[in-house]
Specification:
The structure holds 2 protein chains of 2 kinds. By secondary structure, chain A is mainly α. Chain A is built from 10 helices and no strands. Chain A has a domain of 151 residues. In chain A, α1 runs antiparallel to α8 and α9 packs antiparallel against α10. The N and C termini of chain A lie far apart (36 Å). Chain B starts with a helix and ends with a helix. The chains are: A mainly alpha, B mainly alpha. At the A-B interface, α1, α2, α3, α4 and α5 of A face α1, α2, β2, α3 and α4 of B.
Amino acid sequence: MSKVNRATASQSLSVSFTVGLYGIAFGAAGIAAGFSILQTCALSLLTFSGASQFAVVGVMGAGGSALSGIATASLLGIRNGLYGLRMAPVLKVRGAKRIIAAQVTIDESTGVAIGQEDLGNHAMRQGFWLTGFGVYFFWNIFTVVGALGAQAMGNPSAWGLDAAVPAAFLGLVWPRLLGRFERILAASAVLIAIALSPIISAGLPIITTALLAVAFGWKARR
Amino acid sequence: MSALWIGVLGTSAIAFFLKFMGHSIPEKYLTNPRMLRINTLIPIALLSALVGVQTLTEKGKWVIDQRLAGVIVALIALRLKAPYFVVVISAALTSALIYRFK
């Protein structure tokens, strides 16, 4: 990692911090659901995938079995596998580095990486690693804060975090939405995922839109 | 081992397995033009869908609230070519203000 692009670095930091702050909400949610501080922190360290973590504490906290908690969380984790598919040819890593890359392959690191596409593979790699490690750092720190201080922060909505996170992702895909083709794909993905949300269980509406990407990419572009 | 620990470790093991799988598909399957196209479009579709779901749903129900206002402000900021952190902060401020005064 030689020269670090400033724009890439500042975007990585913004994303890491904004999303990391949500770790407070997760820490509090874990404790409220009856998980110990150690178990809550273990989820952030080991699972390291926000949606899956909220799912498992949500399901088990509401009295669900370990199996149903794991199943719901895993459904939400499938998209990280699809991100890995996209990132592997960019990162080109093996062995221990591939294990580390896999662990930090999440919405945020992939989002920042594809946001740097115009700057080339080097910037994409920087964006991926900086954001992957950045989110890992802040997410875990703030999970501890949330688990210890649970109620101190109050509702994340009061801080605008509920809108900051989707806005952060919107800002990441934005540079990819310059063409009409991509805009139509993105708009269709939003509509389909929202339409499916009340019908199928959490996680599935989002993964389903991967099929849309397959359909759009199948025939030659434009 | 308690059920909670099984939940924690089981979730973590599968989460890692899924992430690692994506990284382990041999590159030769991903290099034809069609796969390259699809592979580029998948994160765009997934992340767009994520924005939609985070903005307009809550626990599987459609909800219109302060989040939508925040994301619309972010959209305006993006159209005005505002720097990234301005986009995120303007969304947070909008949402927080509406939440406080509604």
